[in-house]
């Protein structure tokens, strides 16, 4: 890969991150706007947005829950945490709950192997997770969500 292509890819990733941060996800309309403004083929933008799990092309829940899929997490009861989250939130991996509270994803290593199993919620890591710790965390998030909805 040429140096200029690496620079272009870095800029593209930054543009997509900014768009997602601003809108919560990267809609088709936003991709078209970026395509025109940056003179980048929409097919390239869409390919990058769909390839990287950090980008979302559909509206997301208030809390984006990412389950670490690294070997360290899997070997330390990560699968049990994953199954519990699917049951507790009521959606399969890659989906958003009907109430708009949670989006659930499985991701590659999040860099917390020494404190496995780990999850990330809205970018914040939570380590040494157990079913009990996940229950407490979800209860706090649900309470916060209901308070925000009332305002």
Question: If you had to describe this structure to a student in words, what would you say it looks like?
Answer:
With 151 residues, the protein is of the alpha+beta class. It has two domains: 3-51; 63-150, Glutaredoxin, CATH 3.40.30.10. Helix content is 54%, strand content 12%. It contains five helices and four strands; from the N terminus they run αααβαβββα. It has a four-stranded mixed sheet with strand order 2-1-3-4, with helices on one face. A hairpin with a 2-residue loop joins strand 3 and strand 4.
TL;DR?
With 151 residues, the chain is of the alpha+beta class.
Task: Describe the SSE topology.
Layout lengths: L2 H21 L4 H11 L3 H10 L11 E6 L2 H19 L12 E6 L11 E3 L2 E3 L4 H20 L1
Index terms:
151 residues, alpha+beta, Glutaredoxin, four-stranded mixed β-sheet, 12% strand
What is the CATH superfamily of the largest domain? Glutaredoxin
Tell me the Rg in angstroms.
17 Å
* Global geometry: globular
Which structural category do the helix and sheet elements fall into? Answer: alpha+beta
User: Terminal Cα separation, in Å?
Assistant: 50 Å
Give the uncertain stretches in residue-range form.
1-7
What percentage of the residues does DSSP assign to strands (E)? 5-15%
Q: In CATH terms, what is the architecture of the largest domain?
A: 3-Layer(aba) Sandwich
Record the strand order, biggest sheet.
2-1-3-4
Reported for the largest beta sheet, the result is: 4 strands, mixed
